[in-house]
Amino acid sequence: MAEPVSGVPTEGVPPLVADILERITDGFFALDPQGRFVYVNRSAERILGRTRNELVGWSIWQLFPEATERRVFRRYQKAMAELVTVQFEEMIPSLGRTFRVRLFPSEDGLSVYFRDITEEMQTLEALRTSEKQFRQIAENVREVLYLTTADAEKVLYASPTFEEVWGISRKRLMKDASVWTRTIHPADRERVLAAIPRMKEGSYEEEYRIVRSDGTLRWVLDRTFPVRNEAGEVYRIVGIAEDITADKQAAEARELLLAREQASRHAAERGAAWREEVLAMVSHDLRNPLNSIHLSASALRDLPLSEEKRVQILDRILSVSGQMDRLIQMLLDTSRLESGNALPLERSAVDVGDLVQQACTLFQPQVEAKQIRLECEVPDGCPRVYADKERILQVFWNLLGNAIKFTPEGGHILIRSETEGSTLRFSVTNRGPEIPPEHIERLFEPFWQEKRTERLGTGLGLPISRAIVQAHGGRIWVESSQARGTSFFFSLPIASALPA
User: What is the pTM of this model?
Assistant: First the structure.
């Protein structure tokens, strides 16, 4: 090895500069134009593992010959040849360390600053390895993994599954975090936004719907966990968002199935109750007219009667048989309704005056028996209605029958019709007792009757009347008060108002 050059001045560095160089933690040494050490600070001694006395006067390339085969030598040559500052990082095998080096050339030689960054590089490599492992996990799970700032105002990372679930690019999300919140269903947005401050507490867990760009809905379960720095402060939020649409749909399907089972069970129970009601009603309401027919027929057969008496008995039989026929018709109609079938209609243009008059005539005997004043108000020129006449007479039969039952002797019943746009409104009003408000909604339930000391009917008339009116496209309702009495209203379409 060549001998060091003696007499190289090392004390030529100004004291103030030397004091600064001895205090800095970076290694520093100066080379003359031939590459010989002329100054070495304490940090350089420590890093290089040699004293300045062992270095000063020696050529750097003689002391570290392996460096001539590395990039550091080429960088040195470039700096000296072009007199340009050069910065680079280099691993020195003989030292087993990595350095960040800065070369400052001049006509008098080269100043070299270098810092040991071995631990820094190891930490960086560990972070890269950790990030690689995180990405391998994040990019291969079905959940969306994401990372935000502590205030959740900026998304720093989102796994690829985000694009699959949300239908939005990750690049767009990380550029504008509000993209996320804007996709939240309007019905859920306020609740979710109000919960965001809880992300830093570690108690954020929300289920909500998102609206994708194609308009489809998805359900998401979103949870977050705070990440703290060495000072214990939250500086990142890690989140996991899971697409739970399939789970929600399965739960809804189960609920629907359960609801159907319950509805089916309820329908079966209702059907059983209906059959019991029918049997009870039939045994009560058919037995009396049958007994009347039986007694009348026996009288005709066994008793010597005048012609006038025979006609009276025959009229009674006809009346009672008509009553039985109407009862049987109501049972058939109720059976159709319970089965979900519509009532058959044969509609035509019906004269309202004739319709109301015929309805009043049907009840003339009952009205006279109770000395009730039955009044009909049908304006002249009243338009025809488009209806099944027999079915509407059935409605009048039910409404008038109820009105007569609850009107005291000597009372008053009023039937009116008046035009309302494209419909005609009918009303049947009596001055009987007020119907309690809590009973009005139940009047149209099959078999329901207000509690009384005796049964006043089958409980089928009003439900059937409602079905008939609704089948015509109209509606039926009731109003009752102590001052005005009780009025049943129903509407029917005017024939001339219908399209040809």
Answer: 0.43
